[in-house]
Amino acid sequence: MTGTLPPQDDSLRAARERFVALWGQMGSTWGIPRTMAQVHALLFVRGEAMNTDEVMEGLGISRGNASMTLRRLVDWGIVSRVHRRGDRKEYFLAEQDVWKMFRTILAQRKKREIEPLLDALADCRLDRTTGRKRKVDQASAAIESHNDRLQDLLVAMRAIDSICDRFSGPGGKGLEIAVKLLDRAS
Questions:
Q1: pTM for the whole thing?
Q2: CA angle, 60 as apex, 58 and 65 as ends, to 5°?
Q3: Do residues 36 and 74 touch, judged by C-beta distance below 8 A?
Q4: Three-state secondary structure call for residue 141
Q5: Tell me, what CATH number does 65's domain have?
Q6: Distance CA 54, CA 49 (A)
Q7: Cα Rg for the chain, rounded, in angstroms?
């Protein structure tokens, strides 16, 4: 990250580098590619728009990696493209409102992880008439038990899905309010 700050501000540079490393590590723990999390962290901690060259220099990554990662962050909705008048380069700015950022990430994770899981779990349930007619009572009981376990899981996952909708919805204050209430309760 040598090219991102004036040389006289070593303490700020070191703090930003620690944040970028920490965010990258946390992202990879959550299943986000480390470079994607680091690019987001760099844009967020800088708090100003950066172009692809600055991101490449700041993280020591290739142009292709920077471009692909910036595109994915824009697709997620936590980074936006910014154009500067008279400059042909594209600039990128991370969302600076942390609550909006977390709501957006939650909405993306819901769309990519929870919704497909709900569909897949529903498909795992069995019709009681499935299978051959041998030992119908025993097979029916096993199928019913199977379906009951999956139904319990579906109910829990649908509740999580509903909570995600409330937290990440367009009104946008659900997550912030819930976190503050839980913080006061502890």
A1: 0.75
A2: 105
A3: no
A4: helix
A5: 1.10.10.10
A6: 10
A7: 23
Which pLDDT does position 172 carry in this prediction? 61
Work out the burial of residue 6: count CB atoms within 10 Å of its CB; fewer than 13 is exposed, 13-18 middle, 19 or more buried.
exposed
Please state, in angstroms and rounded to a whole number, the distance separating the CA atoms of residues 60 and 65.
10
For tokens 């929870």, what's the residue? 114
111 and 38 in one domain? no
SS3 44: helix
How many folded domains does the chain comprise?
A: 2
Q: Is the pLDDT of residue 3 over 80?
A: no
**Residue 36 is part of which domain span?**
2-94
Pairing of strands 90-94, 50-51: antiparallel
79 and 110 assigned to the same domain: no
Contact between residue 164 and residue 110 where contact means Cβ atoms under 8 Å apart: yes
**87 & 166 share domain:** no
Per-residue pLDDT tens over the stretch 34-83 = 999 999 999 999 999 999 999 999 999 999 999 999 999 999 999 999 99
